[in-house]
Specification:
two-stranded antiparallel sheet
Length: 76
């Protein structure tokens, strides 16, 4: 599959929109799931999913998950 380079929504660096490591923003309606068909608890169902034209790199998403501003420099 060919590459489609797009800027990361947060840092602006180029990311491949088709890469499995690139995040894509989606919007939809969530309903918390009680028990999955596999018998595991948790998770959610997202209905009417809409794909938005926003992409992000793994580094920025990991920083956001950790509560760090993606634009913050490294602490030395």
């Amino acid at each position: 599959m060919a590459q489609m380079m797009v800027p990361c929504f947060y840092c602006g660096k180029d990311v491949d929109a088709f890469s499995r490591t690139t995040y894509r923003r989606v919007m939809g309606w969530e309903r918390k799931a009680g028990v999955r068909a596999s018998g595991k608890h948790g998770g959610s169902d997202i209905s009417l999913r809409q794909v938005l034209d926003h992409y992000a790199c793994t580094i920025c998403i990991d920083r956001l998950r950790s509560g760090v501003n993606p634009e913050q420099g490294a602490l030395l």
